[in-house]
Specification:
Blueprint: H1 2-14, H2 18-30, H3 35-48, H4 51-62, E1 74-78, H5 92-108, E2 112-115, H6 123-135, E3 144-147, H7 153-166, E4 172-178, H8 182-191, E5 195-201, H9 218-242
Parallel strand pairs: 1-2, 1-4, 2-3, 4-5
């Protein structure tokens, strides 16, 4: 047990981001100039790399309301990146979205709408390849519709709206995206006239803490970055819609 604790402390303190927190603290102590700046940087990096601060950032954007009486016409899955060369081509976040969307489409016998383009690779094409692999070991094959032109969430909403209008599909959807992203996605799809039931997947919030959760960890930094990115995106949407 003692060896386990030491290995964890070593991992969290001497690998990034812990290593950079320590270096910034040393810079704050020994530097002749910008000591307060180095100290602020160390405290800020340490804070957003802890589970407690990460959860505080995630909670307002991962919290969504549900409606048991909602009757959707389709399940919309937002892409989240993909790889060119891999057995599973979608990224871990995107694969979770795809699997949950597929389960919902099969469970409620709904069309599955895949939305997302890409710059280096086409995310929708790669989602289709992963979906074919899933369907090869399953008895469920839902109707698939594709929106392949969007490069961001705003375009997801806009181009998916155009697809629904073109195919005369009622705009009542289960919207599947990562939990940290669901609030902004919900706002955008509502903006384009959809009735939306959010279906988040991949929650980052933890409800129990140990002493290790107060040490800097890369997974917490990752989710804190995602949360801050979403807050910036939500603010930019509100400012744009006010002007």
């Amino acid at each position: 047990m003692f060896v386990y604790i030491l290995s964890k402390i070593f991992t969290y303190l001497f690998l990034p981001p812990g290593l950079f927190v320590i270096l910034l603290f040393f810079a704050a102590v020994f530097a002749k100039r910008f000591r307060l700046l180095f100290l602020f940087g160390a405290i800020f990096l340490w804070a957003i790399s802890t589970a407690v601060v990460k959860d505080a950032l995630l909670f307002p954007i991962e919290k969504v309301k549900s409606n048991a009486n909602f009757s959707p016409s389709a399940v919309v899955v937002l892409s989240g990146g993909s790889y060119r060369n891999d057995v599973i081509k979608t990224t871990p976040d995107a694969f979770k979205r795809l699997m949950y969307g597929y389960i919902l489409a099969c469970r409620y016998k709904l069309p599955l709408v895949l939305s997302g383009g890409g710059i280096k690779t086409n995310d929708t094409d790669n989602m289709i390849k992963d979906l074919e692999m899933i369907e090869s070991v399953s008895n469920c094959k839902p109707k698939i519709l594709m929106e392949k032109g969007s490069l961001n969430t705003y375009q997801n909403g806009k181009f998916t709206s155009n697809l629904f209008d073109k195919m005369n599909i009622p705009k009542r959807i289960y919207l599947v995206s990562s939990a940290y992203h669901i609030k902004r996605a919900y706002m955008i799809f509502k903006h384009f006239g959809f009735e939306v039931m959010p279906k988040p997947v991949g929650f980052g919030i933890e409800d129990r803490y140990t002493l290790f959760d107060f040490l800097p960890q890369m997974k917490n930094l990752y989710y804190s970055y995602k949360a801050i990115h979403e807050y910036v995106g939500i603010l930019s949407l509100k400012l744009a819609w006010m002007l």
